[in-house]
Amino acid sequence: FGWLTDDGSLDPTKGVELWITARMTHVAALAVLEGDTAYGEVVDHGVATFAPGGLLHDPEHGGWFASVHADGSPDIADKRAYEHAFVVLAATSASAARRPGADDLLDSALQTFEQRFWRESDGLAVDVWDRSWSELEDYRGVNANMHSLEALLAAWDVTREERYRERWRRY
Q1: Is residue 110 within 8 Å of residue 139, measured between CB atoms?
Q2: Packing angle, helices 40-50 and 102-112, rounded to 10
Q3: Residues with Cβ within 8 Å of residue 12, at least 6 apart in sequence
Q4: Full-prediction pTM beyond 0.90?
């Protein structure tokens, strides 16, 4: 998954972005859920990209890189709620489509979101951490929170865990 050139092929000058990979994984999973099993391998590719050892997973600090170069080295190593919300969304759809590894990804994505981004005292997500999760920006991104709400709606729909419904009601 990635940026496209004018002829529709992947742009080799651009790296791999977390939000694009997650959104495309989500869309492919929706196709599988609608009965088009031809997209199963596409979903599996996305799930593998997020899994430990996958291209976008941070093996040192956990979570996912916002963007990596073609060689897999981090381009944007910050941990951002916006992109992580899309990993939750992709994982919920892949799990609903019963794709291999999707349930583990969903558990990991939700755990990361809850531990690192959800701020119970405010009922909102925080926005941007540094790579090691040691420095948090003060800014509270409305875009990150909008997509976090979307991810929590999907998490409730797939897991039926009441805490996700309670959280999205607070938005």
Answers
A1: no
A2: 40
A3: 70
A4: yes
